[in-house]
Amino acid sequence: MLATKQTFSSSQASDKPRWLELFRDYIAWYKASVPEDVIELCWQRLMKGGEGNHAGLVAYQEEGGLVVGLAHVLLHRSTWCATHYCYLEDLYVDGKVRAQGVGQALIEAVYALADEKGAPKVYWQTHEQNYRARGLYDKVGRKSQFILYERK
C-alpha cells in the first residue's frame, strides 16, 4: 500500500540497487539502449551533485521504504535569466504504483527544488505517444509552443 503522502529524498547510495532497476525499466520503456558504463556515470553524477551534475529525487513507498519513482533534474544556466533553468530529464514511476499520485508528487518535488534554487522555469519533454503521462503533464504544466529538433 502506498502512503497518502509519499516520502521524497535526494538519491542516496543505499538507493542504488532499486534505482538501477527502475532506471533500466525506464530505458527499456523507451526501447532505448544505454551502455552500463554510462548508467554508472549517471549514478556517480547523481551522488556527486553540484553545478553541472544532475540532482536525483526518489519517491519511497511508506511501508518498507521501497523506492517507487525517480526524477533526474539538471539545473543549468540560462541566457535569458540571471539564475538557472530546471530541466526534468527523466521521470519514471514503477508500473505497480502508477496512477496513485507518485508522478505528480515527484513533479511537485521538482518544482519545490527549482523554487529553492531560484529557477523560474521548469521544463521537460516526453514522447508524443506517451498519452498516459501527457494526461498528468497537462494537469501540472502547459504544453510549450516550441518544437524540439535534434542533430541528424
- Note the gap between the termini: 46 Å
Mean pLDDT: 88
Number of separate strands? 5
Order of helices and strands: EHHEEEHEH
Question: For this entry, what is the oligomeric state of its chains?
Answer: single chain
How would you sum up the major sheet? 5 strands, mixed
Structural class determined from secondary elements:
alpha+beta
The proportion of strand residues reads 15-25%
Instruction: Tell me the Rg in angstroms.
Output: 15 Å
Strand order of the largest sheet: 1-2-3-4-5
Give the overall silhouette.
globular
Unreliably modeled segments? 1-6
Count up the helices: 4
Helix content: 25-40%
Topology, please?
Blueprint: E1 7-10, H1 16-29, H2 36-48, E2 55-60, E3 67-77, E4 84-93, H3 102-117, E5 121-123, H4 131-140
Parallel strand pairs: 4-5
Antiparallel strand pairs: 1-2, 2-3, 3-4
Describe this protein's structure:
The chain is an alpha+beta fold and 152 residues long. The chain contains 4 helices and 5 strands, in the order E-H-H-E-E-E-H-E-H. The chain has helices spanning 16-29, 36-48, 102-117, 131-140; strands spanning 7-10, 55-60, 67-77, 84-93, 121-123. A 5-stranded mixed beta sheet has the order 1-2-3-4-5, sandwiched between helices. Helix 3 links the parallel strand 4 (84-93) and strand 5. The longest helix is centred in the C-terminal third of the chain and has 16 residues, at 102-117.
Please describe the structure with a list of short key phrases separated by commas or semicolons.
152 residues; alpha+beta; five-stranded mixed beta sheet; 4 helices; 5 strands; 22% strand; disordered N terminus
